[in-house]
Each structure stands twice: as C-alpha cells, then as structure tokens.
Amino acid sequence: MLNADNRGQVGIGTLIVFIAMVLVAAIAAGVLINTAGLLQAQAQQTGTETTAEVSDVVEVGKIVAYENASDIGTPTLGGNGEIEAINASLRLAAGSDAVNLSKASYTLATNSNASVVNGNANKNGDVVSYYPIQGFDESNTVILSEIDQLMVARFNLSNVEGIKPMSKGSDLTIVIQAPAGGTTHKQVQAPRQIKDERSYIL
Hints:
This protein is α+β, with helices and mostly antiparallel strands and 202 residues long. The chain contains 1 helix and 11 strands. The longest helix has 52 residues, at 4-55. The protein is elongated.
C-alpha cells in the first residue's frame, strides 16, 4: 500500500528547492544585467573620449611674424631685430567637433626655451588674443565650430614668461592641445634678416 504522506513531503521539498533555484537565478541575472549596463555606459564614455582625443584637433595654417609687437596693438620698444609677436591662423581639422580655444593650451618654444600659455584671453590678454576672420558671426569669438571657419590667434612673445622673442634664423615651435586632448605641432623658422617694423610670413 502506498504512503501518500511521504510522497507529499518529497514533493514539497522539491518545490522549495526549485523556488530557491529560480530566486538565485533571478538574482544572478539581475546582477549580470546591471553589470552589463554599467560596462556598456563606461565603454561608450571611453569611446567618446578616445574619439574626441584623436579627432578634436586644431590645424595651424599660415603664421605671420612681426618685428614690433605694436603692429598688433601692443606697445613695445621694438627696433631690436627680433620677432616680438606672431599671428597664427587656426581652423578645425576634418572630422573634428567644435573646439573652444579659450580652454585650449599652447606650448611655445623659441631659442631653446619653452613655455605653456593658457588660452583664456580674458585672463591672459597680454599674451594671447583672438579675432575671427572667416565664417563667424559676431557673437562667436573663441569657438571653432565649422571646418570653414578661420580664427587668428595673436601671441605677444615679448610677454610670454620663460621664452624670448625670435632671433634671426631661429625656430619657433607651437603645440596646440585642444580641451579634449588632441594635439597639433607646427614648426617655422625666422628670416635670416629681420628689419625694423617689418612683418614676415614664416
């Protein structure tokens, strides 16, 4: 004769084990889904930042050098046969997002000396200033947002701490680091003869 009481106890035990397994599986699945979501968000952020670091780049075009910094509106003595100031034309590289030049940093090197310049003209106006010359509206003065826009950055080398104006035949190296981390290098050379009150395309 079958013992129905014993069979019922076995069935309840099996049900309890089954429910416990389902609960454990559900908790594990929740942990995995949460972890996957966090990893996906982190991967997207890392990808975005890495892409910006590579693609957000400011290109340096023509550089015009001035023997006397007063030629760009900064009174100096001049007449010393050295390049005191430069105008560097800047534009976005292909594929770059908008770059706020006031948040960029510039490394300038002349005559075996180098210095880092803060790009904020409001705080560093005696060293760097900007003016748009192509494709800008009147409200935008420091943000490159389109590839056809052209901005000129003015650097008064006489006021840059740690370096001296360019002497005859000396090299000038400019390194621009965009806020996202993309960098651009440009090296030019001063003329062999620098006459007073003259300007030169380097």
